[in-house]
Design brief:
It is a single chain. This protein has one domain: Porin. About 15% of the residues lie in helices and about 50% in strands. It has an 8-stranded antiparallel β-barrel with strand order 1-2-3-4-5-6-7-8. The protein is elongated and about 45 Å long. The two termini are about 30 Å apart.
């Protein structure tokens, strides 16, 4: 448990250091404008927690990293990976997904929608693998927005299919995972 707390503290510290460094990195009039590629390249990280509402004891600490395309309407269209480490046991879920975040306007609104779909590699202990479909839908709220950095908080519903591995010699009776998540993050 101490290692999870240390990892969480380190990630939050890294988050605020990145945020602070980006806030100080203001362009001057002599700087060259960013290339077309960099104007449309997006990447970010989120940290948070998921509460299992399906009764599987899979509430978790979540870390997400993603990259993709952005423009004035699409906040992020890309791919990402989560690492979800269960708090009450040694189970790990690692979804790899395609995602879209958009506020559907070129203004700077308070809220945006997020949708993610992909495949999750789930290790429920050292030998059992129960991989399957992953999807998540949520609503995000902008905390800070500038031309180079955006911070946000996202409330979402997450579904993980827990399909039994054919190599197991017994049937495992476990429900598919449904969870409510809250994440705070930053994207550039």
């Amino acid at each position: 448990m101490k290692s999870i707390i240390n990892i969480t503290f380190s990630i939050i510290l890294l988050f605020f250091c990145c945020f602070d460094a980006s806030a100080r990195n203001k362009r001057t009039k002599t700087d060259a404008p960013p290339s077309a590629f960099m104007r449309h390249f997006a990447w970010g990280i989120d940290v948070g927690s998921s509460i299992d509402i399906s009764g599987n004891d899979l509430s978790s600490l979540d870390i997400s990293a993603y990259f993709g395309y952005k423009n004035s309407i699409i906040r992020t269209l890309g791919a990402g990976v989560d690492i979800r480490s269960s708090l009450g046991n040694s189970h790990t879920l690692m979804p790899i997904y395609a995602m879209i975040r958009s506020d559907f306007t070129n203004k700077n609104p308070l809220c945006f929608l997020e949708s993610r779909i992909g495949y999750s590699f789930n290790t429920l202990n050292t030998i059992e693998k129960e991989n399957g479909l992953f999807f998540s839908v949520g609503i995000g709220f902008n905390l800070f927005t500038s031309s180079t950095v955006k911070s946000h908080i996202i409330l979402s519903y997450t579904y993980n299919e827990l399909k039994a591995d054919d190599l197991l010699e017994y049937t495992r009776y476990i429900n598919n995972l449904s969870a409510m998540s809250i994440r705070i993050g930053v994207n550039f």
